[in-house]
Amino acid sequence: MLGIGVAVITLTLVAYSCLEKSVTIKVDGKVIEQRTFKRTVGEVLEANNIRLNPHDQVTPGLEAAVKENMVIDVVRAFPVTVIADGQTREIISIPVKVKNVLQQAGIEVGPSDLVSANLDDLTYKGQVIKITRVAEETKEIMTSVPYSREYVSDNNLEMGLTRTVSRGRPGQMRQVVKVTYHDGQEVKREVLSSEIIKPPVNEVVARGTITSVSRGSLRLDFHRALMVEATAYTYTGRNTATGKRPAVGLVSVDPNVIPMGSRLYIEGYGFATAADRGSSIKGNKIDVFLESKEACIKWGRRWVKVYVLK
Question: pLDDT tens across 249-290, in order?
């Protein structure tokens, strides 16, 4: 009887041993090795408190029977953001090729479109995939051709002054251009061909050469002449920028145009010295000193010729 009992126990243990299987679970970067009596993959995962999300992938499937030395692989799904055509879509997926995610999102990629990731690369958690729509258009446009300026010498004009001999006229050009758009916005313009329809006409400007003129019995030798807008001022109680008391013959200038201390001859005013400057005197402007407010009013605002004397 004892032998029979031992045999029964032995058979029971053998049967029990056959029911227990060795399995390996790979999940969330971990490897879990164990022996289990569970019959299906789903039961093994449940016994290990491994919760699945709807898009997670389990290999073999949850209903698969547990076998000796089985490897159960759990691949977690994650969100991937796809931006295209002014819309943003979130796709939940396991790692797959980028082109598969785009298909899942219902997005077709044209041959010229730009994708921020290689179509054959695998997606990853938190990835943002942007599709830029590229379109090209060829069109004909008319453009203006700027004219150049030619200078000639004028022996009847003072050095520093110029006069327009003939005005320039812009030309006209016909161009065929290829325009590239990214998501409807122009990003590139390439000229394919150009044709001058009307050539430009250059402007001709005469430049003065003389450095000496006569004014009555006076002979004026000068470095240059210039036209300026002249106003007038009178006593303000303040000295000039050079420290001198304001007086007839002292004028305010822009030092960048007329250096301080320059000796001048101003038509309609006479000889003067650049001795002052002011915040409103910028560019081709001067402010001449006169004895009274009435004289300043009478002077007003006028254009005058100024000679910078040697």
Answer: 999 999 999 999 999 999 999 999 999 998 899 999 999 999
CATH of domain 19-75: 3.10.20.90
51 near 74, Cβ under 8 Å?
no
- Tens of pLDDT along 8-63? 444 444 444 457 999 999 999 899 999 999 999 999 999 999 999 999 999 999 99
Domain 137-206 annotated CATH 3.40.50.300:
no
Q: Which of 77, 53, 73 is nearest to 64 (CA)?
A: 73
Distance CA 263, CA 285 (A): 16
pTM for this one? 0.59
Peptide bond into 79 cis (omega under 30): no
Beta strands in 48-202 (DSSP E): 57-59, 70-75, 78-84, 87-93, 114-115, 128-132, 134-145, 149-158, 162-166, 171-182, 185-198
| CATH class (in words) of the domain with range 78-132 | alpha beta
CA-to-CA distance for 185 and 176, rounded, in angstroms? 19
CATH architecture of structural domain 211-309: Beta Barrel (2.40)
For residue 200 the two structure tokens come to 């430009």
Cα-based torsion angle of the residue sequence 229, 230, 231, 232 in order, rounded to the nearest 10 degrees: 170
DSSP-H helix ranges across the chain:
2-19, 41-47, 98-104, 293-299
